[in-house]
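#onboarding

Welcome to the new folks! Below is a worked example of what a typical request in this channel looks like: someone posts a single protein sequence, and someone else replies with the predicted structure as tokens. Don't worry about understanding the tokens yet, we'll cover that in week two.

Example request:
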Amino acid sequence: MPRFHVDGPLSVGHTLPLPDDVVRHVHVLRLQTGDLITLFDGAGGEYRAELVEIAKRAASARIDSHDPREAEPPYRVMLAQGVAGGDKMDWLIEKTVELGVSAIAPITAERGVVRLAGERALKRQAHWQALVRAACEQCGRNRVPDVAPPRDLDDWLDDLPEASTGDLRLLLSPRAELSFATLPADPPSGTVTLLIGPEAGFSPSEEEAIVAAGFSTLGLGPRVLRTETAGIAVLAALAARWGGW
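Example response:
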């Protein structure tokens, strides 16, 4: 059954006009009046709906029932990712959403090849958020991770709140003090913040500032992974360790 995200709120018994992007998908998929679709608004669960009207540039659906089904892992990971160049950032955002990341904070750093500010930064944020919604539609998640505006590392660290009990802050680094064997056997009760540098990594001074902000350095073994691979590898490993599959 096709799945679509709709800005809520949704409620059973309500007939609503579908947003333009969903209407385009309805036409691409050649759906017909009477076909069943699944809608979700990010507030939890999903809704079974029936298409009741399809026009050239509009469509509407009647919401028939609500299913509280969720597909979230039993832990929360916020990915702070050094902005990668080209299509790498798009690809890793899509894949990390599929692997259960809860929020994404794009970070610019000294050695990063991408600089984002002003209107360009807002456009990229909107683009990435649209990728997140599409990934949730595809993978069956009903909670939509938030993509924060791109920020410089120093500014992001300055605004980072004090860690709460149960939080875990990890910086991927080839000069790591921790390995996966030293991580807790059970998922933390708080938020796991995973910080990954851009293509050339963080500078030594940046790593010092990150560690001073309460991050522990985590290694991935003897091989150095690309920035667009590292987060995916960590999320997959955490899922295997903490029951996220």
